[in-house]
Write a structure and sequence with these properties.
Layout: H1 2-11, E1 21-23, H2 31-35, E2 44-45, E3 53-55, H3 58-65, H4 70-79, E4 84-86, E5 91-94, H5 99-112, E6 116-118, E7 125-128, E8 134-138, E9 141-145, E10 148-150, H6 165-172, E11 182-184, E12 188-189, E13 203-211, E14 217-227, E15 231-233, H7 235-250, E16 255-259, H8 266-275, H9 281-287, H10 292-302, H11 315-326, E17 328-330, E18 334-335, E19 343-345, E20 353-354, E21 359-360, E22 366-368, E23 375-377, H12 382-414
Parallel strand pairs: 1-6, 10-22
Antiparallel strand pairs: 2-5, 3-23, 4-5, 7-8, 8-9, 11-19, 12-15, 12-18, 13-14, 13-16, 14-15, 16-17, 20-21
Helix pairs in contact: 1-5, 1-12, 8-11, 9-10, 10-11
Protein backbone atom coordinates (compact mmCIF):
# COMPACT_ATOMS: atom_id res chain seq x y z
CA UNK A 1 0.00 0.00 0.00
CA UNK A 2 2.56 2.57 1.13
CA UNK A 3 4.99 1.34 -1.52
CA UNK A 4 2.48 1.72 -4.36
CA UNK A 5 1.55 5.18 -3.15
CA UNK A 6 5.22 6.14 -2.90
CA UNK A 7 5.86 4.90 -6.44
CA UNK A 8 2.99 6.91 -7.86
CA UNK A 9 4.06 9.99 -5.88
CA UNK A 10 7.68 9.69 -6.97
CA UNK A 11 6.71 9.69 -10.62
CA UNK A 12 4.66 12.84 -10.01
CA UNK A 13 7.59 14.64 -8.38
CA UNK A 14 8.33 16.92 -11.31
CA UNK A 15 8.10 17.53 -15.02
CA UNK A 16 10.93 15.15 -15.86
CA UNK A 17 10.31 11.80 -14.23
CA UNK A 18 12.81 9.53 -12.55
CA UNK A 19 12.79 5.83 -13.29
CA UNK A 20 10.81 4.06 -10.58
CA UNK A 21 10.74 0.30 -10.10
CA UNK A 22 8.44 -1.43 -7.60
CA UNK A 23 9.73 -4.79 -6.38
CA UNK A 24 7.24 -7.06 -4.63
CA UNK A 25 7.97 -10.56 -3.40
CA UNK A 26 4.31 -11.59 -3.36
CA UNK A 27 2.80 -13.55 -6.21
CA UNK A 28 -0.44 -11.71 -5.68
CA UNK A 29 -0.17 -7.92 -5.50
CA UNK A 30 -2.17 -6.00 -2.92
CA UNK A 31 -3.42 -8.95 -0.90
CA UNK A 32 -3.74 -6.81 2.25
CA UNK A 33 -5.93 -4.35 0.40
CA UNK A 34 -8.18 -7.13 -0.85
CA UNK A 35 -8.85 -8.55 2.62
CA UNK A 36 -9.23 -5.19 4.39
CA UNK A 37 -12.63 -4.21 5.71
CA UNK A 38 -14.12 -7.61 5.03
CA UNK A 39 -13.18 -7.36 1.36
CA UNK A 40 -14.53 -3.82 1.00
CA UNK A 41 -11.35 -1.92 2.04
CA UNK A 42 -11.95 0.95 4.44
CA UNK A 43 -9.64 3.38 2.64
CA UNK A 44 -9.45 5.86 5.51
CA UNK A 45 -11.53 7.43 8.27
CA UNK A 46 -13.36 10.74 8.12
CA UNK A 47 -11.34 12.12 11.04
CA UNK A 48 -7.72 11.04 11.47
CA UNK A 49 -5.30 12.52 13.94
CA UNK A 50 -2.38 11.33 16.03
CA UNK A 51 -4.58 10.28 18.97
CA UNK A 52 -5.68 7.23 16.99
CA UNK A 53 -2.11 5.88 16.88
CA UNK A 54 0.45 4.30 19.17
CA UNK A 55 4.13 3.47 18.90
CA UNK A 56 6.43 6.40 18.15
CA UNK A 57 5.61 9.81 19.59
CA UNK A 58 2.25 11.20 18.59
CA UNK A 59 3.88 14.52 17.82
CA UNK A 60 6.02 12.85 15.16
CA UNK A 61 3.04 10.94 13.77
CA UNK A 62 1.05 14.19 13.55
CA UNK A 63 3.76 15.81 11.42
CA UNK A 64 3.58 13.08 8.81
CA UNK A 65 -0.21 12.86 8.78
CA UNK A 66 -0.40 16.61 8.32
CA UNK A 67 1.50 16.40 5.04
CA UNK A 68 -1.18 14.29 3.41
CA UNK A 69 -4.52 14.46 5.21
CA UNK A 70 -7.90 12.79 4.72
CA UNK A 71 -9.18 15.48 2.38
CA UNK A 72 -6.23 14.97 0.06
CA UNK A 73 -6.66 11.21 0.23
CA UNK A 74 -10.31 11.49 -0.79
CA UNK A 75 -9.42 13.90 -3.60
CA UNK A 76 -6.62 11.68 -4.91
CA UNK A 77 -8.82 8.61 -4.98
CA UNK A 78 -11.52 10.60 -6.75
CA UNK A 79 -8.94 11.50 -9.39
CA UNK A 80 -8.28 7.78 -9.76
CA UNK A 81 -11.98 7.18 -10.33
CA UNK A 82 -12.71 5.83 -6.85
CA UNK A 83 -15.48 7.67 -5.02
CA UNK A 84 -15.69 7.10 -1.27
CA UNK A 85 -18.70 6.99 1.02
CA UNK A 86 -18.86 7.58 4.75
CA UNK A 87 -20.55 5.06 7.00
CA UNK A 88 -21.94 5.67 10.50
CA UNK A 89 -18.69 4.52 12.07
CA UNK A 90 -16.77 7.24 10.20
CA UNK A 91 -15.05 4.69 7.96
CA UNK A 92 -14.71 5.64 4.29
CA UNK A 93 -15.31 2.84 1.78
CA UNK A 94 -15.42 2.81 -2.01
CA UNK A 95 -18.98 3.24 -3.24
CA UNK A 96 -18.59 -0.09 -5.04
CA UNK A 97 -18.08 -1.87 -1.68
CA UNK A 98 -15.23 -3.74 -3.35
CA UNK A 99 -11.58 -3.69 -2.34
CA UNK A 100 -10.75 -4.71 -5.90
CA UNK A 101 -11.84 -1.23 -7.01
CA UNK A 102 -9.20 0.31 -4.74
CA UNK A 103 -6.42 -2.07 -5.75
CA UNK A 104 -7.11 -1.78 -9.47
CA UNK A 105 -7.10 2.00 -9.22
CA UNK A 106 -3.77 2.02 -7.36
CA UNK A 107 -2.11 -0.40 -9.76
CA UNK A 108 -3.47 1.56 -12.69
CA UNK A 109 -2.18 4.84 -11.27
CA UNK A 110 1.29 3.37 -10.78
CA UNK A 111 1.41 2.00 -14.31
CA UNK A 112 -0.07 5.18 -15.83
CA UNK A 113 2.63 7.19 -14.07
CA UNK A 114 5.22 5.04 -15.83
CA UNK A 115 6.54 3.13 -12.83
CA UNK A 116 7.56 -0.49 -13.41
CA UNK A 117 5.88 -3.20 -11.32
CA UNK A 118 8.06 -6.30 -10.98
CA UNK A 119 6.75 -9.37 -9.09
CA UNK A 120 7.35 -11.82 -7.68
CA UNK A 121 10.80 -10.35 -7.02
CA UNK A 122 11.83 -10.96 -3.43
CA UNK A 123 14.45 -8.66 -1.94
CA UNK A 124 16.81 -10.54 0.37
CA UNK A 125 19.64 -8.05 0.76
CA UNK A 126 20.22 -4.32 0.36
CA UNK A 127 23.71 -2.86 0.62
CA UNK A 128 25.15 0.62 0.19
CA UNK A 129 27.54 0.97 -2.72
CA UNK A 130 30.90 2.68 -2.30
CA UNK A 131 30.18 5.02 -5.19
CA UNK A 132 26.72 5.94 -3.89
CA UNK A 133 23.31 4.38 -4.18
CA UNK A 134 22.30 0.85 -3.28
CA UNK A 135 22.61 -2.69 -4.52
CA UNK A 136 19.46 -4.77 -4.17
CA UNK A 137 19.83 -8.54 -4.35
CA UNK A 138 17.48 -11.51 -4.39
CA UNK A 139 16.94 -14.88 -6.07
CA UNK A 140 15.97 -13.10 -9.28
CA UNK A 141 19.23 -11.17 -9.54
CA UNK A 142 20.68 -7.79 -8.62
CA UNK A 143 19.56 -4.22 -9.20
CA UNK A 144 21.21 -0.87 -8.53
CA UNK A 145 19.21 2.13 -7.31
CA UNK A 146 19.95 5.74 -6.49
CA UNK A 147 17.35 5.73 -3.71
CA UNK A 148 15.16 3.14 -2.00
CA UNK A 149 11.77 3.31 -0.32
CA UNK A 150 11.44 0.49 2.21
CA UNK A 151 7.75 -0.45 2.32
CA UNK A 152 7.88 -4.10 3.36
CA UNK A 153 5.11 -4.02 5.96
CA UNK A 154 5.46 -5.61 9.37
CA UNK A 155 4.69 -9.20 10.37
CA UNK A 156 0.89 -9.18 10.36
CA UNK A 157 -1.03 -11.38 7.93
CA UNK A 158 2.18 -13.09 6.71
CA UNK A 159 0.18 -14.96 4.07
CA UNK A 160 -0.08 -11.63 2.21
CA UNK A 161 3.71 -11.29 2.07
CA UNK A 162 4.47 -9.35 5.26
CA UNK A 163 6.84 -11.72 7.02
CA UNK A 164 9.07 -9.26 8.90
CA UNK A 165 11.96 -9.40 6.43
CA UNK A 166 11.98 -5.62 6.26
CA UNK A 167 13.28 -5.39 9.82
CA UNK A 168 16.45 -7.24 8.86
CA UNK A 169 16.98 -4.96 5.88
CA UNK A 170 16.48 -1.88 8.05
CA UNK A 171 18.98 -3.17 10.61
CA UNK A 172 21.55 -3.90 7.92
CA UNK A 173 21.34 -0.27 6.84
CA UNK A 174 21.93 1.15 10.29
CA UNK A 175 18.48 1.29 11.84
CA UNK A 176 17.32 -0.11 15.14
CA UNK A 177 14.05 -1.95 15.66
CA UNK A 178 12.00 -1.47 18.81
CA UNK A 179 12.69 -4.04 21.51
CA UNK A 180 9.14 -5.31 21.21
CA UNK A 181 7.41 -6.20 17.96
CA UNK A 182 4.03 -7.81 18.54
CA UNK A 183 0.57 -8.34 17.02
CA UNK A 184 -1.91 -5.47 17.21
CA UNK A 185 -5.58 -5.35 16.21
CA UNK A 186 -5.69 -9.05 16.98
CA UNK A 187 -8.47 -11.31 18.35
CA UNK A 188 -7.94 -12.56 21.90
CA UNK A 189 -8.04 -16.06 23.33
CA UNK A 190 -10.04 -17.14 26.37
CA UNK A 191 -9.49 -20.41 28.25
CA UNK A 192 -11.45 -23.54 27.42
CA UNK A 193 -14.74 -23.57 29.28
CA UNK A 194 -15.00 -19.77 29.47
CA UNK A 195 -18.64 -18.65 29.43
CA UNK A 196 -18.12 -16.32 26.47
CA UNK A 197 -16.73 -19.07 24.24
CA UNK A 198 -20.09 -20.82 24.63
CA UNK A 199 -21.74 -17.71 23.14
CA UNK A 200 -20.09 -18.09 19.74
CA UNK A 201 -21.61 -15.64 17.25
CA UNK A 202 -23.17 -13.36 19.88
CA UNK A 203 -22.21 -9.71 19.62
CA UNK A 204 -22.98 -6.55 21.55
CA UNK A 205 -21.85 -2.98 21.87
CA UNK A 206 -19.58 -2.78 24.91
CA UNK A 207 -16.93 -0.69 26.58
CA UNK A 208 -13.59 -2.48 26.91
CA UNK A 209 -10.99 -1.12 29.32
CA UNK A 210 -7.35 -2.07 29.70
CA UNK A 211 -6.48 -1.79 33.38
CA UNK A 212 -3.21 -2.12 35.21
CA UNK A 213 -2.89 -4.58 38.07
CA UNK A 214 -3.40 -1.58 40.37
CA UNK A 215 -6.68 -0.72 38.65
CA UNK A 216 -5.60 2.30 36.61
CA UNK A 217 -7.41 2.62 33.27
CA UNK A 218 -4.75 2.58 30.54
CA UNK A 219 -7.05 2.57 27.50
CA UNK A 220 -10.79 2.52 26.83
CA UNK A 221 -12.77 1.67 23.69
CA UNK A 222 -16.52 1.48 23.09
CA UNK A 223 -17.59 -0.47 20.04
CA UNK A 224 -18.74 -3.92 18.99
CA UNK A 225 -17.56 -7.05 20.83
CA UNK A 226 -17.97 -10.48 19.25
CA UNK A 227 -17.90 -13.77 21.15
CA UNK A 228 -16.17 -16.55 19.21
CA UNK A 229 -15.30 -20.21 19.55
CA UNK A 230 -11.76 -19.22 20.64
CA UNK A 231 -12.49 -16.11 22.72
CA UNK A 232 -13.41 -12.57 21.74
CA UNK A 233 -13.02 -10.29 18.75
CA UNK A 234 -14.79 -7.27 17.28
CA UNK A 235 -13.62 -3.64 16.97
CA UNK A 236 -13.50 -2.85 20.70
CA UNK A 237 -11.40 -5.93 21.45
CA UNK A 238 -9.09 -5.43 18.47
CA UNK A 239 -8.42 -1.82 19.46
CA UNK A 240 -7.73 -2.82 23.06
CA UNK A 241 -5.53 -5.81 22.20
CA UNK A 242 -2.26 -3.94 21.53
CA UNK A 243 -2.60 -1.93 24.73
CA UNK A 244 -3.21 -5.06 26.80
CA UNK A 245 -0.19 -6.81 25.28
CA UNK A 246 2.02 -3.75 25.78
CA UNK A 247 0.89 -3.38 29.38
CA UNK A 248 1.50 -7.05 30.21
CA UNK A 249 5.16 -6.86 29.17
CA UNK A 250 5.86 -4.88 32.34
CA UNK A 251 2.73 -5.64 34.34
CA UNK A 252 1.61 -9.28 33.94
CA UNK A 253 -1.44 -8.53 36.05
CA UNK A 254 -2.88 -6.06 33.54
CA UNK A 255 -6.36 -7.12 32.50
CA UNK A 256 -9.29 -6.42 30.22
CA UNK A 257 -12.58 -5.37 31.81
CA UNK A 258 -15.86 -5.20 29.88
CA UNK A 259 -18.96 -3.16 30.59
CA UNK A 260 -21.91 -4.63 28.73
CA UNK A 261 -23.76 -1.41 29.57
CA UNK A 262 -21.60 1.41 28.13
CA UNK A 263 -21.87 4.59 30.15
CA UNK A 264 -22.99 2.80 33.30
CA UNK A 265 -21.01 2.21 36.49
CA UNK A 266 -21.69 -0.56 39.01
CA UNK A 267 -23.41 2.05 41.18
CA UNK A 268 -25.64 3.48 38.45
CA UNK A 269 -26.50 -0.02 37.22
CA UNK A 270 -27.42 -1.00 40.77
CA UNK A 271 -29.78 1.97 41.03
CA UNK A 272 -31.36 1.10 37.68
CA UNK A 273 -31.89 -2.49 38.78
CA UNK A 274 -33.49 -1.34 42.02
CA UNK A 275 -35.91 0.87 40.08
CA UNK A 276 -37.07 -2.07 37.91
CA UNK A 277 -38.25 -4.19 40.81
CA UNK A 278 -40.91 -6.28 39.02
CA UNK A 279 -38.69 -7.25 36.08
CA UNK A 280 -36.17 -10.06 36.05
CA UNK A 281 -32.47 -9.46 35.49
CA UNK A 282 -32.58 -11.08 32.07
CA UNK A 283 -35.40 -8.84 30.91
CA UNK A 284 -33.66 -5.76 32.30
CA UNK A 285 -30.53 -6.56 30.28
CA UNK A 286 -32.47 -7.39 27.12
CA UNK A 287 -34.26 -4.07 27.35
CA UNK A 288 -30.82 -2.48 27.39
CA UNK A 289 -30.13 -4.05 24.01
CA UNK A 290 -28.21 -7.19 25.02
CA UNK A 291 -28.89 -10.49 23.23
CA UNK A 292 -30.84 -13.01 25.28
CA UNK A 293 -28.00 -15.54 25.53
CA UNK A 294 -25.59 -12.88 26.74
CA UNK A 295 -28.12 -11.55 29.26
CA UNK A 296 -28.53 -15.05 30.65
CA UNK A 297 -24.75 -15.51 30.85
CA UNK A 298 -24.41 -12.29 32.84
CA UNK A 299 -27.10 -13.44 35.26
CA UNK A 300 -25.40 -16.83 35.59
CA UNK A 301 -22.07 -15.14 36.33
CA UNK A 302 -23.74 -13.16 39.10
CA UNK A 303 -25.46 -16.27 40.48
CA UNK A 304 -28.88 -14.71 39.90
CA UNK A 305 -31.73 -16.53 38.04
CA UNK A 306 -32.50 -14.51 34.89
CA UNK A 307 -36.26 -14.56 35.50
CA UNK A 308 -36.25 -13.81 39.19
CA UNK A 309 -37.91 -10.42 39.97
CA UNK A 310 -35.27 -7.88 40.90
CA UNK A 311 -37.21 -6.80 43.98
CA UNK A 312 -36.69 -10.27 45.43
CA UNK A 313 -32.91 -10.01 45.22
CA UNK A 314 -30.85 -9.39 48.28
CA UNK A 315 -28.69 -6.28 48.13
CA UNK A 316 -25.55 -8.38 47.60
CA UNK A 317 -27.21 -10.30 44.72
CA UNK A 318 -28.31 -7.10 43.03
CA UNK A 319 -24.84 -5.64 43.33
CA UNK A 320 -23.33 -8.84 41.96
CA UNK A 321 -25.58 -8.54 38.91
CA UNK A 322 -24.67 -4.87 38.46
CA UNK A 323 -21.00 -5.80 38.73
CA UNK A 324 -21.27 -8.63 36.19
CA UNK A 325 -22.98 -6.26 33.76
CA UNK A 326 -20.43 -3.46 34.08
CA UNK A 327 -17.21 -5.04 35.41
CA UNK A 328 -16.79 -8.35 33.58
CA UNK A 329 -13.10 -9.30 33.64
CA UNK A 330 -11.94 -11.27 30.62
CA UNK A 331 -9.55 -14.11 31.43
CA UNK A 332 -7.36 -13.36 28.39
CA UNK A 333 -4.96 -16.25 27.80
CA UNK A 334 -3.20 -14.81 24.75
CA UNK A 335 -3.95 -13.73 21.20
CA UNK A 336 -4.22 -15.30 17.76
CA UNK A 337 -0.81 -14.04 16.69
CA UNK A 338 0.48 -12.35 13.57
CA UNK A 339 -1.47 -14.76 11.34
CA UNK A 340 -4.70 -13.05 12.39
CA UNK A 341 -3.43 -9.59 13.39
CA UNK A 342 -4.39 -6.68 11.17
CA UNK A 343 -1.27 -4.67 11.97
CA UNK A 344 2.10 -4.90 13.71
CA UNK A 345 3.10 -2.88 16.77
CA UNK A 346 6.76 -1.89 16.85
CA UNK A 347 9.33 -1.35 14.11
CA UNK A 348 11.69 1.41 13.01
CA UNK A 349 11.39 4.37 15.43
CA UNK A 350 10.34 7.64 13.82
CA UNK A 351 13.16 9.31 15.74
CA UNK A 352 15.50 7.69 13.17
CA UNK A 353 13.60 9.20 10.23
CA UNK A 354 13.47 12.76 8.86
CA UNK A 355 9.75 13.38 9.00
CA UNK A 356 9.62 15.96 6.23
CA UNK A 357 10.91 13.35 3.72
CA UNK A 358 10.68 9.98 5.55
CA UNK A 359 14.40 9.67 4.79
CA UNK A 360 16.59 7.61 7.07
CA UNK A 361 18.94 9.52 9.35
CA UNK A 362 21.58 6.75 9.60
CA UNK A 363 21.31 5.87 5.89
CA UNK A 364 20.72 8.83 3.55
CA UNK A 365 19.00 7.77 0.36
CA UNK A 366 16.80 5.25 2.16
CA UNK A 367 13.17 6.20 2.89
CA UNK A 368 11.12 4.15 5.37
CA UNK A 369 7.31 4.07 5.22
CA UNK A 370 4.17 2.25 6.26
CA UNK A 371 3.87 -0.58 8.73
CA UNK A 372 7.62 -1.24 9.00
CA UNK A 373 7.70 1.99 11.04
CA UNK A 374 6.89 1.97 14.74
CA UNK A 375 3.37 3.29 14.12
CA UNK A 376 0.10 1.41 14.52
CA UNK A 377 -3.40 2.82 14.47
CA UNK A 378 -6.87 1.83 15.55
CA UNK A 379 -9.21 -0.21 13.42
CA UNK A 380 -11.21 1.76 10.87
CA UNK A 381 -8.89 3.00 8.12
CA UNK A 382 -6.29 4.73 10.28
CA UNK A 383 -3.45 2.43 9.24
CA UNK A 384 -4.32 2.97 5.59
CA UNK A 385 -4.11 6.73 6.14
CA UNK A 386 -0.65 6.30 7.65
CA UNK A 387 0.35 4.28 4.58
CA UNK A 388 -0.97 6.95 2.19
CA UNK A 389 0.63 9.82 4.12
CA UNK A 390 4.05 8.27 4.71
CA UNK A 391 4.16 6.85 1.18
CA UNK A 392 3.29 10.20 -0.36
CA UNK A 393 5.91 12.10 1.65
CA UNK A 394 8.63 9.57 0.86
CA UNK A 395 7.72 9.22 -2.79
CA UNK A 396 7.71 12.94 -3.48
CA UNK A 397 11.00 13.42 -1.65
CA UNK A 398 12.74 10.44 -3.25
CA UNK A 399 11.57 11.36 -6.73
CA UNK A 400 12.68 14.98 -6.40
CA UNK A 401 16.07 13.94 -4.98
CA UNK A 402 16.64 11.48 -7.81
CA UNK A 403 15.92 14.20 -10.36
CA UNK A 404 18.32 16.60 -8.65
CA UNK A 405 21.04 13.97 -8.66
CA UNK A 406 20.47 13.25 -12.35
CA UNK A 407 20.51 16.95 -13.25
CA UNK A 408 23.69 17.45 -11.23
CA UNK A 409 25.37 14.55 -13.03
CA UNK A 410 24.39 15.98 -16.41
CA UNK A 411 25.65 19.45 -15.46
CA UNK A 412 28.92 17.91 -14.27
CA UNK A 413 29.45 16.25 -17.63
CA UNK A 414 28.78 19.55 -19.41
CA UNK A 415 31.18 21.54 -17.26
CA UNK A 416 34.50 22.43 -18.95
CA UNK A 417 37.37 20.18 -17.98
Amino acid sequence: MAGLWAARSARAAGGARPRVVVLDGARRLGAKILVAGGGRCNVTHDVVDETAFAGSSRRAIRKVLGRFDVARTVAFFRELGVDLKREETGKLFPTTDSARTVLDALLGAVRDAGAELVHPWRVERVARRDGGGFEIAGPAGTLVAERIVLATGGKSLPQTGSDGAGYGIARSLGHSITERVFPALVPLLLPAGDALRALRGVSARATVEVRSSAGAVLARFTDGLLCTHFGVSGPAVLDASRYLTAARFDDPGARLVVSWLPGETPESADRALLARGAAGGGRFLRERGLPERLAEAICDAAGVPAGRPLRELARAERRALAGAATEWTLAVAGDRGFTHAEVTAGGVPLSEIRLETMESRPCPGLHVVGEVCDVDGRIGGYNFQWAWASGYVAGRAAGAAALRARDSAVDGKRAPG
